Amino acid sequence: MRHLLTVTALTVGLSATAGCAGVRPVDAPATTAGSAPAAGAPTTGGSAPAGAGNTPAVCAAAQQASATGIRTYVEELGRMLAAAGANDSTGAEAARLRAEAALTGWRSALREQAARATDPQLTTLLSDMGAEVGAMGADVDAVDETELDRLQQRLDQLCPR
Fold it and tell me: Taking Cα atoms as reference points, which of 127, 128, 18 lies closest to residue 75?
């Protein structure tokens, strides 16, 4: 029962964070040749100051990766606990592996965006977020909700909507 309450709290807390992460629509990816706006042209979906480099595109990609990673991770943790509660060890193990794969994908996406970022603060933040996600596992008790929330708040400050 304790794990069910923890997953419920985790789901509510992280889903609220993920809900904010996907608010801004993203046009074509910035890495596609010819899709970047001309210099000085306004961009859609971002409010970064002129000369912000690739911050809007990196922010959008990082926020999308976080939203997807959080959603998938929490869903799989829920499946894992439900399967464990039903004495389905095979199902629980499969869900645990999918939860860990979601974390790996999330961490990789954050690291990729950190490498792309031209803003040093954004690079540091995404690296920190990637390290925090990398430290997580499919153990509900190991999730540091407070740290993830703090990092998400920093991302929201660097990536205004």
Answer: 18
- The amino acid sitting at 47 is S
User: Would the pTM of this model clear 0.90, i.e. be above it?
Assistant: no
Residue 54: predicted pLDDT: 92
Residue pair 16/65 in contact (Cβ under 8 Å)? The answer is no
User: Which DSSP state fits 141?
Assistant: G
CA angle 135, 140, 145 (to 5 degrees): 65
Residue 28, phi then psi, degrees to nearest 5: -60, 150
| Buried b / exposed e along 60-97 (16+ C-beta atoms within 10 A) | bbbbbbbbbbbbbbbebbbbbbebbeeeeeeebeebbe
Q: Which two tokens stand for residue 56?
A: 């809007």
- The radius of gyration of the chain from alpha carbons, rounded to an integer in Å, stands at 17
